[in-house]
């Protein structure tokens, strides 16, 4: 629900949200928006707490790994091809626009969308089993 609410707050239409999250039906998105609007103070507090926790973890990671922010800013680093190339499988709730963007950036990335992986509608344990059985890293929004 977090991702859908954030998309709504960014001004995305319900139709745009269903495009970003193909596992959701339009009526589910409208239902989530209706629930959010009916419980806005509580959900805003929940989202703010999550954002604060993320910032805290990010700051700790930057403190513990001072070289990481430099890499994120694009500082000069030596890039080598990894010995093992990771392979990914997206869960049904994963935003397919992220996959498309990653593939545009590097066509060599091995990232299978949920629909191609045949995991839409399956329970989480089954999706995890499929990912593990195919040697893929499961990527999910939840």
Distance between the termini: 9 Å
What's the alpha carbon Rg, rounded to whole Å? Answer: 18 Å
Estimate percent helicity: 55-70%
Which band does the percent of strand residues land in?
5-15%
Strand order of the largest sheet: 2-1-3
Largest sheet: 3 strands, parallel
Helix and strand composition category: mainly alpha
What is the ordering of alpha helices and beta strands?
HHHHHEHEHHE
What characteristic shape results from the CA principal axes? globular
**Please, what is the average pLDDT?**
83
Number of domain modules: 2
The number of distinct helices, counting runs of at least 4 residues, comes to: 8
Count of β-strands: 3
Poorly predicted tracts of residues: none
Explain what you see.
By secondary structure, the protein is mainly alpha-helical. The protein has two domains: 2-72, no CATH class; 87-139, no CATH class. The chain is 58% helix and 7% strand. It is built from eight helices and three strands, in the order αααααβαβααβ. It has helices spanning 2-9, 14-20, 26-38, 40-64, 67-72, 96-105, 114-117, 124-133; strands at 87-90, 110-112, 137-139. It has a three-stranded parallel beta sheet with strand order 2-1-3, with helices on both faces. Strand 1 (87-90), helix 6 (96-105) and strand 2 (110-112) form a beta-alpha-beta unit. The longest helix has 25 residues, at 40-64.
